[in-house]
């Protein structure tokens, strides 16, 4: 007979003391037990694997235990405790709200709720995923919750408390169980590893905890899967291979490509990822973690390096010299956006290539803040009342008559309207090397009926300096070209 018991069940907390990370709920429940003021109904909410059902069962055990300790811990030895542990208790009825969600299912509860418990102190209904009940079922339950028969208690568990009717919520004492932190998960995994006599690298346990995303059950399932796969020590590489994760070395290769501006590397890396059948979502998760770690190191959390194996520590020390924290922020912004698009994207490979290309080109991008700061500095240096060089500036005729399109620019030469998509046309039409675009524009304006008024609109200069461009003006022009390329016409006027 197969005696294998999954780790999630084998190491499920059997006492309040063994519950990880939910101190507030545990203390409140224990105090209620000590003072004999246990509420009629409780609602445990939280993400998967945070201990909702575990706490409901523990409370049921403690209420019905025949030898409750002075610390209100269930004995796990008496008939009631053993029946609950094995799932055979007649007086602790567990109902899955997802598959028993209709009014008829709740009617059955209503019909049996009046019968006294058979041999235990309390008759306890534990309804899991209670938010799945239909509205009619909730309403049918409401009456029973309002006036429950003596010696009956209801414990509800849900991952989505906002879907539970307010009338139900208001009749329950509610515990919002928090997501488990990485340290709690690692601690529990380490104790399990010791118990089953397996050695485990700290970074391997960290990786499992990271993947579990706050759920102890997920962490234990992954750990179980890995221990079944291999009988040797649990190493970081084993976890990576087992779960199809990209090795850290791949990210360090990307860092080097950024440093060398090696665009071709993007395609090589994507090829490697696809050839090895890595899960794209996992890869992206880890890419985000990679830049998140570099950002945190930049923000002064150098202690994080200590937890890494020596080769990775070197890799991250190197990465710190490649990226600034602005680079990390920009990359993280981009990756988080892309993460949301993955499920619907039909071109995942191309998307991934574009993402890596974006990262490799990150050092070529001028940060927005930088650009705006430089524009502001330049704005301060531009003459207070600049004049647009037009034909009108030379000829005595009024501007309105000959060049009506230029009039608003000439009379209102502010920078804001200049830094608009119009700039794009400037950068496209005139190469940067051209020494004096305003002169060309001027001569063009003399012979033609002004085909590109946008050009003139960006040329601002005091009349006295008309013939010879000032230093300010040439800087300004260059910056405007940068802005045009950088903004890519995305800012609306
Ligand atoms: Zn007991």
Brief characterization of the structure:
The chain folds into four domains: 7-176, 3-Layer(aba) Sandwich (Rossmann fold), CATH 3.40.50.300; 182-242, Helicase, Ruva Protein, domain 3 (Orthogonal Bundle), CATH 1.10.8.60; 248-364, Up-down Bundle (Zinc Finger, Delta Prime, domain 3); 368-487, no CATH class. It is 54% helix and 6% strand. The protein has helices at 7-10, 23-35, 52-64, 79-86, 103-112, 135-146, 166-169, 182-195, 202-212, 216-229, 236-242, 248-260, 264-275, 280-298, 310-322, 325-341, 348-360, 368-381, 391-394, 399-402, 407-411, 422-429, 437-447, 453-457, 471-487, and strands at 41-45, 92-96, 123-128, 152-158, 173-176, 387-388, 460-461.
| CATH level-4 homologous superfamily of the largest domain | P-loop containing nucleotide triphosphate hydrolases
Helix segment tally: 25
> Which kinds of small molecule does this entry bind, naming each only once?
zinc ion
Mean pLDDT: 80
Largest sheet: 5 strands, parallel
The parts where pLDDT drops under 50 for at least 5 residues are 397-467, 489-493
How many individual β-strands? 7
What is the CA–CA distance across the termini? 75 Å
Question: What percentage of amino acids are in beta strands?
Answer: 5-15%
Subunit organisation of the chains = single chain
């Amino acid at each position: 007979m197969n005696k294998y018991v999954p780790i999630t069940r084998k190491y499920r907390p059997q006492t309040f003391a063994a519950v990880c990370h939910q101190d507030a709920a545990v203390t409140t429940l224990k105090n209620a037990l000590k003072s004999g003021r246990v509420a009629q109904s409780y609602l445990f909410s939280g993400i998967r694997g945070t201990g909702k059902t575990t706490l409901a069962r523990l409370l049921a055990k403690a209420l019905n235990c025949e030898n409750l300790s002075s610390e209100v811990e269930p004995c796990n030895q008496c008939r009631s405790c053993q029946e609950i542990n094995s799932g055979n208790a007649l007086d602790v009825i567990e109902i899955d709200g997802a598959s028993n969600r209709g009014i008829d299912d709740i009617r059955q509860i209503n019909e049996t709720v009046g019968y006294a418990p058979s041999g235990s102190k309390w008759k306890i209904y534990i309804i899991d995923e209670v938010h799945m009940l239909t509205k009619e079922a909730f309403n049918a339950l409401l009456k029973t919750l309002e006036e429950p028969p003596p010696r009956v208690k209801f414990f509800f568990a849900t991952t989505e408390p906002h879907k539970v009717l307010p009338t139900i919520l208001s009749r329950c004492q509610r515990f919002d169980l928090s997501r488990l932190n990485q340290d709690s998960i690692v601690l529990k995994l380490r104790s399990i590893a010791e118990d089953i006599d397996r050695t485990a690298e700290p970074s391997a346990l960290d990786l499992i905890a990271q993947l579990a995303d706050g759920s102890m059950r997920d962490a234990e399932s992954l750990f179980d899967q890995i221990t079944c796969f291999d009988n040797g020590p649990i190493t970081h590489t084993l976890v990576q291979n087992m779960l199809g994760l990209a090795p850290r070395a791949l990210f360090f290769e990307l860092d080097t490509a950024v440093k060398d501006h090696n665009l071709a590397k993007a395609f090589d890396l994507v090829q490697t990822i696809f050839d090895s059948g890595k899960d794209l979502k996992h890869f992206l998760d880890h890419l985000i973690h990679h830049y998140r770690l570099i950002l945190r190191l930049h923000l002064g959390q150098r202690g994080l390096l200590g937890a890494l194996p020596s080769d990775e520590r070197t890799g991250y020390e190197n990465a710190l010299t490649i990226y600034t924290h602005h680079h990390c922020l920009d990359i993280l912004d981009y990756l988080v956006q892309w993460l949301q698009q993955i499920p619907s994207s039909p071109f995942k490979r191309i998307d991934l290539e574009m993402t890596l290309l974006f990262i490799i080109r990150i050092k070529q991008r001028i940060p927005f803040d930088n650009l705006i700061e430089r524009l502001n500095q330049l704005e301060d240096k531009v003459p207070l009342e600049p004049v647009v060089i037009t034909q009108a500036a030379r000829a005595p005729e009024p501007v309105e008559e000959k060049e009506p399109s230029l009039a608003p620019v000439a009379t209102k030469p502010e920078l804001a309207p200049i830094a608009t998509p119009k700039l794009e046309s400037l950068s496209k039409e005139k190469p940067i090397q051209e020494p004096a675009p305003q002169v060309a524009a001027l001569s063009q304006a003399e012979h033609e009926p002004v085909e590109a008024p946008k050009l003139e609109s960006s040329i601002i200069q005091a009349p006295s300096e008309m013939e010879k461009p000032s230093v300010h003006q040439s800087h300004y022009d260059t910056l405007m070209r940068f802005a045009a390329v950088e903004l890519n016409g995305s800012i609306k006027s």
